[in-house]
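Subject: complex prediction, re-run

Hi both,

The earlier run crashed halfway through, so I resubmitted it with identical inputs.
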Amino acid sequence: MQATIASNNDYQANSYRPHWVREDFADFLLAKVNPLWTVSKTMARIDNIEYIEDDMVKVTLSTKHLLNRRFASFKPGQFIMVTVSIAGVRYQRAYSLVCTPESYAKDGKLVIGVKKQGRVSGYLAYNAKIGDVIEITPAGGEFMLKDEVTPVLFISAGSGITPIIPMVQEALLRSTQPVTLIYYSRDPAFRTELETLAAIHAHFDLHIIVDSAEKPARFDADTLDRLCPDAATRETYVCAAPGLMKATRLLWAEFGWSDRLSQESFLPVTIDENAEAQPVNFRRSQQEFEAKGNLLASAEAAGLKPTYGCRMGICNTCACSKVSGTVRNQLTGEINDQNNVQIKLCISEAVGPVVIDL
Amino acid sequence: MNMIATMPYKLSKSRVLTPDEIAEFGRRIEAIRAETMAKVGEEDAKYVYKVRNFVRYTEIASRAMLMFGGWIPPVWLLGTSMLGVSKIVENMELGHNVMHGQFDWLNDPTLNGTTYDWDTVCTGEDWKYTHNYMHHTYTNVIGKDHDIGYGVMRMTRAQEWEPRFLFNVPMGIFLSTGFEWLLSLQRLELEQVLFTGEKTWKDVYVQSKNWRKKALRQFGKDYVFFPLLAGPMFLPVLAGNAVANLIRNWWASAVIYCGHFTEDAEMMEDNTANETKAEWYLRQIRGSSNFTGGPIIHFMSGNLSHQIEHHLFPDVPANRYQEMAPAVRALCDEYGQNYNSASFAKQFWTVWVRLAEHSLPDNMVDRLKRRFKRNASVSNNLFKRLSQSESV
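This time it finished cleanly. Structure:
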């Protein structure tokens, strides 16, 4: 075991605040009266669960309630984190809001589109009941329309359509500049909503492309030229599975349009078998293991169970202090070699031996 | 290969292992851990939430009793002892274990090891440094583990005798009584101002910023806020809170003393730079001691009655230590390692004997022991002769 004693004073955090009243204690008391009442969290009640196309469910949540720290508002394209408790363990996942800020302002309802796969989504689709109270977070995420009003192109596939729905509506309402949506799906969800929009707004060009597992559609320069010949003049937003994301990224780079492309990924980062193994030391739990690529996934592969949330660098649940060593942010590629700084395990990769205060 | 530096001053009850044996021993320990971690899940989640509710309900009930019925002696007594129990369980079975990250996998920010702060003066952050890191990494390493006598008591002959150690036993009692406050000062290493002159009081003031905030909160809560809230019940509440804190201090320190200060708990020379993980496991076993008892003892000690298992597996949920113990014990027996376990009373007694023994210079203790032995054999012989003469 090699560990050097960190000097006593390196380790004084300035931000320390004792809990004058423990928030979880106050929440515990308030929840006895009404489960929506809380001082530190955002709670929401499930108002409706509706099964729709493409193996998805539309979950309607209401948050407006006295003594519930009110959900402020959001921008189209943003998501909320939903936390559910399964077998005593809390799991969290990000869901894009498919409603618009205007409809939320009117009725106080948030709508998310949930694909029936994975732990949290499966729970919401099959186990959750109308009337249940679950924890959510304020809206987050950087995937939203840029302020500058320009013609817009949206490209989406499968459940990647969810953030696009309110973005399309915002783009259509804010100007009469052309808006095009290319939407690949085997069983298009939100089809009626989109077709209604296309019927009302002359400047909305809607292309729903229904493909199948046997004959998957391909996106290439020809397709783009055919469906949106003036893509060069547009701000483009893509939310889809990794294949389509990569295809658009390469194409836009080739044309030199990369600065006008925004993407939203909804898949977590995982172990990279090709990465070089690095020794990682969890100092407080006295555990050492070899990490290949992603730190969270590697720790779990080594039998450890650190706290985690979204697994995609959003929610900060897995944030912890890196005592020493160098890590790379897997989303931005940024290298962090400072001591005693906060990192998020789920998007960090060790590039040398690392000591973490966990 | 480096062996564990054994104590030259006292014979170890554990056999010296070959490097291969040590490595195999380490693998076997890790197998026990893996087997348990595979089972950790819903049952443990339910358990820890139940413990937290126990703490909450007992705290509400006891504070209410003191506030409204504090003037009736039996109610005061019940409220005070219940508050003491509530604080003990919060500190030991909840706070201590949560701050080790044992329940991080719940993904619950209110039970997360990095943010939890417990109902005692020591800040969670300072505790994680002095306890989780320093004490658990350098367990019983002389010169590195400050928990060996907390810098004020002499625990082993490897520590040079000084006249101040004449007060070993009163110091142990004093530390026990003010445990919450004295433990919270550990991070500030006041002996560096008082004895060695490595820093000044001004340094201490700067370094104590967080300590001051937490101390104000703890003092304010138990000795100002709740007594004032009680209005006419000011004095009973004040006294009840003070006694409850004292109960907690005595019990918590007793559990901790029994974990590392017992007769056979070994203090070791520093070899940490060359130590393998397997050797680290061995050191944890040699430096720790368990005590036996019923389910209430285990619950009230935060399962630190299984100090050996806790030191081997600090991040495994403590409610699993009881079921891991037989496997650890069997492994220790197989490898000739002393598994230091006895009743609470017995372990507690050896702590004070050890403190008393080390309060005097070594040669004086040896002389006394020899004389005591001689006297014992003289009286034994006398007894034998008497009994023989009787039988004749």
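The first strand of chain A starts at residue 42 and ends at 52.

- K.
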